[in-house]
Structure formats: structure tokens, C-alpha cells
């Protein structure tokens, strides 16, 4: 037993005692947020000006910026749409492990293609890349977990772009998480990030040119972009007013249990995403998002869907994406999540057993070539010892 | 005639074995059917299917709560996802050197050995070898629906061979084997009455 449960017990009781007070504060902030939403719902020019002023003061500002739909607007899923080809991708990796006997990493990306209305079984594609030796060296040192994640994310998107190349008709692609490429913007991985970003922007442009819809699906989003917008709208420029909605989330705003802004299947207004990335994602590649309630009556579940501006500005493409995501989520029954994203995850995920197999394959091959193979660290060896269990 | 492959072996013991197959292969094997697992040098093991089992998983459990499932998702789960249909077979005999024995096999089949459905002639050849020795394995088996397996098997033999004399001899043999176990005999005869009517 490694946890001191006596100490934890006392701390848990303290948390419980403060719960009522926190709830009252939160309810007050929630009420303020609703009032602000109603007050500024139609004042799009005013809101855009406030965001612009706030951005000038803080270039790292991250919030929603209204486009041309009012803040509280809600749109039902389109009644019927012609079938589209849907593609989803997800990735998994084996990170470099300095305690292992042999140094390597692996990027595994799975994609699934479903041709709507065809009645055919979906196609499955897997791309596995093993990185070893010099491939693990970067200009500033060795491959980091952040760099592996960056390459994995880029491969997910590039695989979707490759697969969608020769497809005719309506094509919708999506990945799990934001469509913005994350990780390594600053610090020692900055150069690698810039290289990856340029590749990503160019593949986004190619998808735009072909009219392929692309989106990032963020389940249980934690960023409070619209709440932040309301804070900015109500601020007088001072810092104090910026925290008056602490505890209120975008998820609550759009998915409040008793009176959600979005009925089941409805999407919110589309917003621009104000962030540091706006310098990189420009013009029709600019980042936008909307909230979508994929839940059922009495069980709202708002998710954030990120899209490039070329999708946001094309009503037909937006409707297609909206309908496809609602349909995909409904397939999963009581816990809505896009079916294809889950399947892409199943295809891509790398388990511990597979990691061990790849490691053994590498070791055997190196030994066959009479190469010296190191041992795993003694620290790791000690950790792997079977522990004593208590009944 | 090309033998019909119905699956590959997952695990085995002396008294029985379990095979897995794709959902697309599921039209062939049937409860009570005789199957064979050819190994090497004319040695093959015979089994009677007593259970066909379809495992679920987390995704399938979730999908059943959805209002509708599209054809594409149905086929994805049946053809692309790795959820094999499991068939359990009771070992009822083996063949070696061209001769059939209604005894437990000397060695079980190995992982991934192919299982075939027995053809009309193979079924006739197996059931008419010896004097119903394999009934002993069925009647002694624990945790299998003995009455149902026996009646399904006899029904299959009757349908395939049209040999009523064999059916009557088989029933007499069962009565003889179960003469000291009245409840079991009644249970088997009850099931058989549905077959022989």
C-alpha cells in the first residue's frame, strides 16, 4: 500500500466540506454567463472589436471570435443528405525508452474508409514506421516524445489526404482532437515543428482544392473559448473582470442538463478560433469551430468540432459534416462518439505485447548481424520484478 | 469434391477441441455436425459440434444500444473486426492407416489446424465403422447437452444417408447403454422422438 489513506481521507473530507460553497459560486457565475450570452448574442461587430483589442494587448489570447452567426444560435442536423465517403484516422506510438535494451520508436497510424450507402464493409489501412539509429537523432539532440507525437499527428492527416486523393463525390475526413497541429512550437523542437507545420498546411491546401471536408473531433472539450469571449466582452480592459466566470465551462453553456442551448443533434454557431496559431493558419485555412450536441434528450453531450475556414464558409460542406458526425455518433448508442474514430483507434493502437515483439525482432536481427546489443537498465529490471501482494 | 473448410483450431485437449471461424464461414457448421481435423500421414481426428459460441466485446455491447445499425457497420463488425465464432467439438474418434477407431485420439490437433465439415460419404463411413462406440463419448461427456447433441447427430445421419435401419440400430444401442440410468434415457428418448416422428 503506497498511499497514506489516513492523509487522503482528511483531504477528501475537506473537499467535501467546501463543495456547497463552490457550487454556490459556480451557480452565480453560470447565471452571469447566461445573462452575458443573451446580452451580447447579436452584437457580433462589438464582440469582434473587443477580441481584436484584447488580442492587441495579449497576442497569446485564446478564445472564440464570432463569424456571422449569433452566439446563441442553434442549427438542427440536415434532414437528408446524399451518401458520402467517410474517412477517419488515428495514431499510436512506441516512444523511445532509454531504459530499454535497444533504442527505437514506432509510429502506427490506422485509417478506415466507409462508403456511405454502399452496403460494403469498410476498408482498413495501416501504416507503421519504425525509427532506429540516425532516425532517432534530431538537430538538437534525440527524438522526444513530443516529436514522436507531432510526427504521428502529421502522418494521420497525410494518410487521410493520400487516401482521399482519387475519391469522387462528397468526402469527409476526421481525426480525434484539434485540427491544429500541436506540440513543439517553442523550445528545442521548434524547427521540427515548423517543418511539420509547412507539410500540414500544404496538405490542407490540397484537400481544400479538392473540396474534401476535414474536421477534428474534440470529445469532452476543456477549453472554454466562448466563456472567454463573454469575459472579454464584459471586461472594461482591466485584468480583474477577466476571471468573473471562473468555473463556467463551454460544455455547461451548451449542454446544461435542464435547458441546453443545443437540443440533441444541433450545432452551435460557427466561431473563428482566436489563438497564436492564427498567424500560421491564414485565409481559407484559418481555424474555426462549433459545438455539437451529440447526446440524447435529457443527456446532452456537447463536443467541439474544429474545421478550416473553407468548410465553415461552405453551407453544403458544413451540413454534410454536421449530418455525418451526428449519424456516426448515433451508431454508438448510449455513449455517442464517432464510430469510425473508434474503429480507427482499434486499428492503430499498439499494445505492450506488440512493443515487446518489435523489440525482440530488432534484437534478434541485430544479433544475427553480429551487432552488439545493450542490456535494459537495471532500474527497469528491478521495476519489472514481480511484487509482493497482500490479501 | 472439394472439402469445405469451416475454421481453424484455437485450442484442444484429448476429449475435445475448439475452433474459430469467420462469420462468413458460419453458414456451414451446424450443431451436432461431424467434423474432421486432418493432421499428417492419414491421421485425422473426428469431432461432433456441441456448441457454437459468439463472443461479444465492448464495442458490440455499445452498438446494440443504437437505434439502427447500417449495413456498412454490420459488415465491418462481421468481416473486419477480429471476433471469431467459436465452435466446440467433442472428440469422438480418429482415423489412422485408413482405419476408423471410435476411441479418443492419441494426440489432439494443434493450433491453427484446419477443420473440415464431413462430406456425405465421410459421415456414412464414420458412423458405420464399428458398433456405435463413439456414443460412449457423447453419453459420458459432462457439460454438454447430451440429448440434443445425440438427436441432432442422428437426424443429420438420417437426412444424409436415408438409412432408417441405422437409425433404429442407433436408438437400440442408446437404450442399451442407458438402461441403468432411467432419467437420462427418458431425456434422450424425448429428444429423439422429435427426430424420428
What does this structure look like?
The complex is a heterodimer of chains A (391) and B (197). By secondary structure, chain A is of the alpha+beta class. Chain A has a domain at 82-225 and 243-348: Nucleotidyltransferase, domain 5 (2-Layer Sandwich), CATH 3.30.420. In chain A, 41% of the residues lie in helices and 19% in strands. Chain A has eleven helices and 13 strands. Chain A has helices at 5-40, 44-57, 145-163, 190-210, 225-234, 250-255, 309-312, 315-330, 339-348, 352-368, 378-383; strands spanning 63-66, 74-75, 85-94, 104-115, 123-132, 137-138, 141-142, 171-176, 213-218, 267-268, 271-274, 287-293, 302-308. Chain A has a nine-stranded mixed beta sheet. In chain A, helix 1 crosses helix 5 (225-234) and helix 3 (145-163) runs parallel beside helix 4 (190-210). The mean pLDDT of chain A is 92. Chain B is an alpha+beta fold and 197 residues long. Chain B is 38% helix and 25% strand. Chain B contains seven helices and seven strands.
- CATH architecture name of the domain at 82-225 and 243-348 in chain A: 2-Layer Sandwich
Terminal CA distance of chain B? 33 Å
Shape, principal axes of CA atoms of chain A: globular
Compressed to H and E, one letter per element, the order of chain A equals HHEEEEEEEHEHEHHEEEEHHHHH
- The tally of strands of chain B reads 7
- Give the largest chain-chain interface (CB within 8 Å): A-B, 19 and 19 residues
Q: What's the total count of β strands of chain A?
A: 13
Helix fraction of chain A? Answer: 40-55%
Beta fraction of chain B: 25-35%
The tally of helices of chain A reads 11
List the uncertain runs of chain A: none
Number of helices of chain B: 7
Amino acid at each position: 500500500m503506497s498511499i497514506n489513506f489516513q492523509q487522503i481521507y482528511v483531504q477528501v473530507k475537506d473537499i467535501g466540506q467546501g463543495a456547497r460553497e463552490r457550487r454556490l459560486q459556480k451557480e452565480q457565475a453560470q447565471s452571469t454567463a447566461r445573462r452575458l450570452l443573451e446580452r451580447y448574442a447579436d452584437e457580433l461587430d462589438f464582440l469582434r472589436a473587443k477580441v481584436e483589442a484584447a488580442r492587441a494587448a495579449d497576442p497569446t489570447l485564446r478564445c472564440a471570435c464570432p463569424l456571422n452567426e449569433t452566439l446563441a444560435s442553434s442549427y438542427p442536423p440536415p434532414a437528408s443528405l446524399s451518401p458520402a465517403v467517410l474517412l477517419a484516422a488515428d495514431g499510436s506510438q512506441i516512444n523511445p525508452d532509454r531504459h530499454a535494451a535497444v533504442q527505437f520508436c514506432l509510429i502506427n497510424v490506422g485509417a478506415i474508409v466507409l462508403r456511405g450507402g454502399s452496403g460494403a464493409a469498410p476498408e482498413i489501412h495501416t501504416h507503421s514506421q519504425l525509427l532506429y539509429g540516425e532516425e532517432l537523432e534530431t538537430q538538437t539532440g534525440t527524438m522526444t516524445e513530443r516529436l514522436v507525437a507531432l510526427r504521428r499527428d502529421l502522418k494521420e492527416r497525410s494518410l487521410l489526404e493520400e487516401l482521399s486523393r482519387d475519391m469522387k463525390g462528397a468526402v469527409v475526413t476526421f481525426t480525434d482532437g484539434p485540427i491544429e497541429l500541436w506540440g513543439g512550437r517553442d523550445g528545442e523542437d521548434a524547427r521540427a515543428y515548423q517543418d511539420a507545420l509547412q507539410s500540414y498546411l500544404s496538405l490542407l491546401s490540397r484537400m481544400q482544392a479538392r473540396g474534401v471536408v476535414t474536421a477534428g473531433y474534440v470529445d469532452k472539450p476543456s477549453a472554454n473559448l466562448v466563456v472567454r469571449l463573454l469575459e472579454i466582452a464584459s471586461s472594461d480592459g482591466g485584468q480583474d473582470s477577466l476571471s468573473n466566470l471562473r468555473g463556467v465551462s463551454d460544455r455547461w453553456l451548451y449542454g446544461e442538463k435542464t435547458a441546453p442551448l443545443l437540443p440533441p443533434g444541433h450545432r452551435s454557431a460557427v466561431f473563428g478560433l482566436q489563438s497564436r496559431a492564427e498567424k500560421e493558419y491564414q485565409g481559407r485555412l484559418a481555424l474555426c469551430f462549433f459545438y455539437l450536441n451529440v447526446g440524447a434528450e435529457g443527456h446532452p453531450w456537447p463536443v467541439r468540432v474544429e474545421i478550416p475556414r473553407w468548410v465553415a464558409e461552405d453551407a453544403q460542406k458544413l451540413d454534410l459534416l454536421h449530418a455525418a458526425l451526428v449519424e456516426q455518433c448515433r451508431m454508438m448508442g448510449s455513449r455517442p462518439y464517432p464510430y469510425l474514430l473508434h474503429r480507427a483507434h482499434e486499428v492503430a493502437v499498439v499494445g505492450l505485447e506488440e512493443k515487446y515483439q518489435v523489440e525482440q525482432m530488432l534484437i534478434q536481427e541485430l544479433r544475427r548481424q553480429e551487432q552488439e546489443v545493450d542490456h535494459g537498465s537495471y532500474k527497469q529490471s528491478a521495476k519489472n520484478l514481480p511484487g509482493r501482494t497482500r490479501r | 469434391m472439394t472439402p469445405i473448410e469451416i475454421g481453424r483450431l484455437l485450442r484442444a485437449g484429448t476429449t475435445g477441441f475448439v475452433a474459430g471461424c469467420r462469420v462468413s464461414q458460419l453458414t456451414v457448421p451446424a450443431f451436432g455436425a461431424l467434423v474432421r481435423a486432418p493432421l499428417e500421414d492419414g491421421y485425422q481426428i473426428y469431432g461432433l459440434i456441441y456448441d457454437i459460441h459468439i463472443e461479444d466485446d465492448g464495442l458490440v455491447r455499445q452498438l446494440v444500444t443504437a437505434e439502427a445499425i447500417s449495413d456498412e457497420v454490420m459488415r465491418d463488425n462481421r468481416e473486419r473486426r477480429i471476433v471469431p465464432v467459436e465452435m466446440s467439438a467433442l472428440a469422438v474418434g480418429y482415423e489412422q492407416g485408413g482405419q476408423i477407431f471410435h476411441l479418443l485420439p492419441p494426440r489432439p490437433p494443434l493450433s491453427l489446424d484446419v477443420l473440415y465439415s464431413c462430406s456425405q460419404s465421410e459421415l456414412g463411413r464414420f458412423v458405420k465403422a464399428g458398433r456405435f462406440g463413439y456414443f460412449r463419448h457423447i453419453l459420458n461427456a459432462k457439460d454438454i447437452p447430451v440429448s440434443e447433441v445425440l438427436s441432432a447427430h442422428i437426424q443429420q445421419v438420417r437426412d444424409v444417408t436415408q438409412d432408417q435401419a441405422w437409425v433404429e440400430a442407433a436408438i437400440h444401442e442408446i437404450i442399451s447403454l442407458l438402461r441403468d440410468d432411467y432419467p437420462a434415457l427418458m431425456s434422450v428418448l424425448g429428444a429423439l422422438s422429435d427426430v424420428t416422428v
